[in-house]
Design brief:
Arc Repressor Mutant, subunit A; WH_DNA-bd_sf; WH-like_DNA-bd_sf; Tscrpt_reg_HTH_GntR; 123 residues; transcription; mainly alpha; 2 domains; transcription regulation; three-stranded antiparallel sheet; 5 helices
Length: 123
């Protein structure tokens, strides 16, 4: 995620942050399911007050751009219900594969094999 806050812009810092995250989510450069930094960490990285980042996150959540999953963190939300459900299932799969000790490549290979098996003949 790349965000820059201009001290000379006419927009407030929280609005600059909100707009940049929303634009990146809409363009796909921040894909559905992408975990955003914590409020505190992003505030430190950008040199902003935590309340400024929290305000931007609240606005983004109100717009349906991001979703907070309690202690699990804040994530870019899927645009549609089915895409949101698929992103959640993929995240659950990734967490389980990691708990099972699979590395990224092995987890990806297993997922690709499962997709091939399910989608056989659907062309």
């Amino acid at each position: 995620m790349k965000v820059t806050i201009s001290g000379t812009a006419s927009e407030a810092p929280y609005e600059q942050l909100r707009a940049q995250i929303a634009d990146q989510a809409r363009s796909g450069s921040l894909p559905a399911g992408y975990r955003l930094p914590t409020v505190r960490r992003l505030a430190e990285e950008l040199g902003l007050a935590p309340n400024t980042v929290a305000k931007a996150y609240r606005a983004l959540e109100g717009d349906g751009v991001i979703e907070t999953r309690g202690r699990n963190g804040t994530f870019v939300a899927a645009a549609e219900g089915s895409a949101r459900e698929a992103a959640h299932a993929a995240e659950e799969y990734a967490r389980r594969a990691r708990r099972l000790g699979l590395d990224r490549e092995a987890a990806l290979a297993a997922a690709e094999e499962a997709l091939r098996a399910v989608y056989v003949g659907e062309r």
